[in-house]
């Protein structure tokens, strides 16, 4: 399918072409028509699937093709996401797609000064991108006028729940007009996220990417069994030196682990930077800029810090520690092989990571390739798998709920 078939405004198509996007990704192909139709939507899509464009493009289309409910101050569209990095990413993508149209956007996120944000909120605005805490701060001071609001997007809803934002989100949803179009994106659409979607969305369409689309089949996924942390250090140094690598993200389980790993790498002459929640905003921003400009080759990060980061040249993702949820694994490796490019994901697995590996292989329905590096072979053996692939092949098909009633606005 081509972008032209999606009935988007010519000026948006021009901006899409200028980005070099040749065809829509699966989530874009499925979500854009639903959103253009005015339906509420819940979509399971991770960062890396093109989900930002999947909601930004059809919202922009509607913003430029119909008049606002009324003139005055306040946003017509509000996008709420868990971290300022994600918010900045959405802001950046929106700027890219508004190259040929006149759209006013602003952001209200934590960790930066209030002054410019207060200014933004006193203007008429098309798109406001926010993190929950700071937005509520402003709302508490009576600074946010939602009377013009037509669209609400809850991005990475699962993370917002994990980070304890449910109360904040309730307050935000309670403050915006009921007659609106609501979109919710999340890595998974189960349990609490599903309950949240049912409460905040009106007869939503549901889009779930099939397993293959989520599994990142374009990514070469391998594991290497390790005896202990020291062995992992040796393996990582080998991979970093030997693999054809443009930029790599290396995940650790803890901030302390991240610091230790960076020190190790730097001591051995493999220059690396670190990104975790204890760093000041200015240091995080500097590291992000250096990554974007290719001045950093190795970035060691924790999951939370890496959330929403979008670097285009990541050729490799290393899991120094495996994440304790299989969804996080899929999310992490999605940092390489963006959109249509290929990439490599290598996980270093020792006894303590074993259960996590089992659940990853169960979720993805496939056994990951085992690497063995000459001279760095493990002494210990990987345990035998019981029936790891019990649920293998269970695929999520897009479950579109037929013809849902069009909302009256
Ligand atoms: P996202 O999932 O929104 O974080 O997007 C992941 C990356 O894919 C971003 O760098 C986008 O610029 C890129 N991207 C989004 N849509 C497309 C597309 N249709 N073709 C190629 N790249 C895309």
List keywords for this structure.
409 residues, binds adenosine monophosphate, globular, seven-stranded parallel sheet, alpha/beta, disordered C terminus, Rossmann fold, 16 helices
What report would you give on this structure?
- With 409 residues, this protein is of the alpha/beta class.
- 39% of the residues lie in helices and 17% in strands.
- The protein has a 7-stranded parallel β-sheet with strand order 3-4-2-5-6-1-7, with helices on both faces.
- α15 links the parallel β12 and β13.
- The longest helix is centred in the first third of the chain and has 15 residues, at 51-65.
- The chain is globular, with a radius of gyration of 22 Å.
- The two termini are 31 Å apart.
- Residues 387-409 have low confidence and may be disordered.
- Adenosine monophosphate binds next to α3.
In short:
This protein is an alpha/beta fold and 409 residues long. The chain has helices at residues 10-19, 26-36, 51-65, 84-97, 115-121, 132-140, 157-162, 166-175, 191-200, 211-215, 229-242, 255-267, 281-292, 303-306, 326-333, 354-364, and strands spanning 41-44, 74-80, 105-108, 124-130, 151-154, 181-186, 205-208, 219-225, 247-251, 272-275, 298-301, 314-319, 343-349, 369-370. It has two domains: 3-208, P-loop containing nucleotide triphosphate hydrolases (Rossmann fold, 3-Layer(aba) Sandwich), CATH 3.40.50.300; 219-408, Rossmann fold.
């Amino acid at each position: 399918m081509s972008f032209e078939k999606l009935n988007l405004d010519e000026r948006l198509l021009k901006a899409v072409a200028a980005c070099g996007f040749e065809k829509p990704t699966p989530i874009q192909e499925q979500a854009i028509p639903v959103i253009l139709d005015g339906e509420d939507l819940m979509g399971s899509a991770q960062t890396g699937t093109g989900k930002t464009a999947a909601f930004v493009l059809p919202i922009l289309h509607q913003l430029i093709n119909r008049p606002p409910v009324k003139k005055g101050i306040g946003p017509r569209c509000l996008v709420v996401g868990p971290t300022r990095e994600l918010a900045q990413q959405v802001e950046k993508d929106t700027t890219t797609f508004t190259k040929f149209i006149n759209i006013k956007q602003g952001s209200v996120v934590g960790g930066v000064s209030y002054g410019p944000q207060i200014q933004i909120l006193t203007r008429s605005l098309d798109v406001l991108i926010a993190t929950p805490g700071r937005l509520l701060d402003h709302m508490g001071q009576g600074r946010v006028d939602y009377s013009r609001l037509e669209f609400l997007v809850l991005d990475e809803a699962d993370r917002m729940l994990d980070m304890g934002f449910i109360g904040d989100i309730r307050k935000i949803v309670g403050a915006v007009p009921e007659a609106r179009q609501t979109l919710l994106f999340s890595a998974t659409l189960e349990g609490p996220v599903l309950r949240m979607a049912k409460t905040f969305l009106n007869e939503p369409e549901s889009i779930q990417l099939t397993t293959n689309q989520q599994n990142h089949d374009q990514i070469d996924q391998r594991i290497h069994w390790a005896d202990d942390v020291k062995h992992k250090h040796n393996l990582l140094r080998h991979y970093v030196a030997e693999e054809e690598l443009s930029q790599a993200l290396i995940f650790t389980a803890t901030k302390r682990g991240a610091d230790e790993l960076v020190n190790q790498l730097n001591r051995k002459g493999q220059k690396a930077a670190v990104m975790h929640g204890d760093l000041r905003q200015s240091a995080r921003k500097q590291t992000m800029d250096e990554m974007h400009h290719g001045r950093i080759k190795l970035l060691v990060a924790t999951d939370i810090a890496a959330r929403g980061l979008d670097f285009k040249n990541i050729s490799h993702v290393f899991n120094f520690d495996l994440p304790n949820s299989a969804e996080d694994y899929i999310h992490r490796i999605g940092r390489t092989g963006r959109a249509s490019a290929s990439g490599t994901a290598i996980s270093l697995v020792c006894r303590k990571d074993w259960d996590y590996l089992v659940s990853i292989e169960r979720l993805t329905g496939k056994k990951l390739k085992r690497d063995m590096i000459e001279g760095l072979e493990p002494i210990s053996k990987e345990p035998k798998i019981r029936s790891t692939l019990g649920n293998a092949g269970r695929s999520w098909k897009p479950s579109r709920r037929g013809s849902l009633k069009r909302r009256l606005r």
